[in-house]
Amino acid sequence: MLKFLKAGLLGAAVVSVAWSAQAADVADGENVFRKCAACHSVGEGAKSRVGPHLNDLFGRQAGTIDGFKYSAAMVAAGEGGIVWDEQTLTQYLVKPRDFVKGSRMAFAGLRKSADVANVIEYLKTFDEKMASTVGQEQPAEEEVETAMAETPALAADVPLPEHDGQFKLGRVATEDEIAAWDMDVRPDGLGLPVGSGTVADGEVLYTDNCAVCHGDFGEAVGRWPVLAGGQGTLEDDRPEKTIGSYWPYLSTVYDYVRRAMPFGNARSLSDDDVYAITAYLLYLNDVVDDEEFELSNENFTDIHLPNEDNFIEDDRLEEAHYADKKEACMTDCKPAPVEITMRARVLDVTPDSDEEGAGGEID
Amino acid sequence: MSDKNNDTLDKTSASRRRFLQAGLAGGAVLAGASAARAAGDPLITEVQDWNRYLGDGVDANPYGMPSEFEAHVVRRDVPWLTADPVSSINFTPLHELDGIITPNGVCFERHHGGTAIINPADHRLMINGLVDTPLVFTMQDLMRFPRENRVYFLECAANSGMEWRGSQLNGCQFTHGMVHCVAYTGVPLKYLLEEAGVKTNGKWVLAEGADAAAMTRSIPMDKALDDCLVAFKMNGEALRPEQGYPLRLVVPGWEGNMWVKWLRRLEVGDEPWAQREETSKYTDLLANGKARRHTWEMEVKSVITNPSPQAPITHGRGQMVISGLAWSGYGRIQRVDVSIDGGRNWQTARLDGPSLPKALHRFYHDFQWDGSEMLIQSRAIDEGGYIQPTKDELRAARGENSIYHNNGIQTWYVKADGVVENVEVS
Q: Which chain B residues are Cβ-neighbours of A169 within 8 angstroms?
């Protein structure tokens, strides 16, 4: 165990030394880019999605990718002379909406200057003009990798762990380790951290972190999930399943935002931030109507979502076609002739056909 | 061009030219027009390149890949289905496969936060919650438990989900390709839970992934102790990254979303956790506005993979094979029936290959095709006696908004020219 810890620390030390030895790092930039990847793609075959693609970015006039719907502000910025290069990108990425006021890019910005430098270095690798300037000062990458992928020591006489298991394998988890990973929250409130946040705080956080995909009012951008509205539509032809119309428990919102959101930058919000965003989502769904409302671990389980009682346990096997367990019919099972009642050709949404999907979804 | 070729008659250009010649000659023979140069198929009467020139040596491909002529056998996605490829799905090319085992490289993928890339040396599995001793295992620890080998299908609950409102996609890859079947090597989950010691009020297990979605599902303890595995190999080799390398949960017969990939934690509790993927998603909305939850088992289902829209009939009338797959989350498949007249009359198909519980079964119907159009269907019956329902029976019971668990009988319309289309019938 001690041996293991030492190896770990050593590895960390090597990594940090390697970092300080050079200015901007493509690999680190690739990590940073994950925050951007929810909306932007880059690399071979990259296409514009929620945001424009970022291939050959350097020297590009702002707001000029054909076919991408920019904000008027971004187009104007380009026409006003903004061309993307190391300097303009550095300014933009720190606080996008300060640099281009009215930019549709809802991303709040990169706080650490190292992140900005690294992500720019990463983007250079996808720019024909810049690629040659990248990585002249490669970090001691080999050294890092060797440290990470240490070969396990050969059979050593390590003491057996102290627990009652039959196989005496594994080791006892520490309290800190459990606290680091055990972040699930149940409908009865088990697992809620101490904390609080208001609707008003949540609105700011939501606008910075969530609106880019989910829309300013939870109405969603593109095919990203709709979060609000839809009440009373569950029996419709096209039900809209949102937190307010469908989700049974508020705990699921808190748990999910904390574990997996914002998409591409999970675990970056504080517990209080998550309370605030959850409170704002209640507000968007008309479950609370007061902007001063504060959600906390104290009042959390008092809140019930409207659709909670509409969930039932699995009773598929009671459906007639299963429950009857009749003999399968083999001859003359239906009147002749059998007619075609519907053809895929009428609404052909098979990939490579031209139609957009309209007939279904998978989640 | 010809000068250069004459100078350097390399293998590629030679083979390309011969291929062209053979194609032309073949076409002539088929058309029955002008006389062929030699009496017979030039592929036989003329020496072929591969019969003359040497091939690659043993180490040309240290990890072997399929033949270049199989390059079309790939997973495909339906881009409009989801917002972004990082949280999306693609489909197994069922119409190109045979037998019951799915090759690792074409097993369909479904991720919610992209493929996590994890060095096995950096991977840990924790067991905590209502246990006597919370434990942490390394991959090496896990490999020291007694392990088992089992063949299971894995089907996404949303497989065929796009077809609830009617036939929509032309290809069994798209209508039924969210399923695969591989041989897993892993440790029974029971051993791991027992190693930590489950407290008497421990009735549920929460499985959690290490990916950017930190995927979580609640699994009842009875199932966890019954046949679940914590697997590290598929079809004999390490899990593929997109299938959860280095560690995934195997939950036989139950919906694919529960088979948590990149498995890092198992928590024991006394109640389910109502996570996003078991409330907002993977619950089945009924026509009356109620929604079923905890719909875990994948019901009895089958599909004809050949012929199908991506695999039309390219031969004439006479002897032919209808081939397909059948499976049930409740156990083995007992029987598969095939109809060529839209479900009026049925004949029992031939099951071939291993018949394993909660695994794909391969069926064949060998018959004489008279060259006329057909409405072909398959209907599976599992060992519990459950019969695969028609799509109309399902809609009558559930409406059209369930998304998940569509196991209705599929109809392919085979035209006289061999072209196949996805249809629904009276």
A: 137, 141-142, 144-145, 195
- Tell me, yes or no, whether A39 lies in a domain: yes
* Residues of B in Cβ contact (< 8 Å) with A177: 126, 136
For the record, the structure tokens of B274 come out as: 């109502």
CB B232 within 8 A of CB B185: yes
Summarised one tens digit per residue, pLDDT across range A174-228 is: 999 999 999 999 999 999 999 999 999 999 999 999 999 999 999 999 889 999 9
Which range of residues forms the domain containing residue A84?
Answer: 23-133
How far is B170 from A28, CA to CA, in rounded Å? 43
A356: tokens are 């957009």
B262: left (phi over 0), alpha (psi -120 to 50) or beta: left
Q: Residue B171's closest chain A neighbor by CA?
A: A350
pTM, two decimal places: 0.80
- Does residue B67 register a pLDDT over 70? yes
* Lowest mean per-residue pLDDT among A103-107, A200-204, B8-12, B116-120: B8-12
Please give the residue that has the higher pLDDT: either A117 or B262: B262
| Cα–Cα nearest to B296, from B390, B193, B404 | B404
CA distance A147 to chain B (A): 11
Q: For B90, list phi and psi in degrees, rounded to 5.
A: -130, 180
- Distance of alpha carbon B276 from alpha carbon A14, whole angstroms: 39
Complex ipTM, two decimals?
A: 0.88
CATH code, domain carrying A261? 1.10.760.10
Q: Is residue A272 part of a domain?
A: yes
Which of A133, A149, A180 is the last residue before a domain boundary? A133
Length of chain B: 426
Whether B228 contacts B217, CB under 8 Å? no
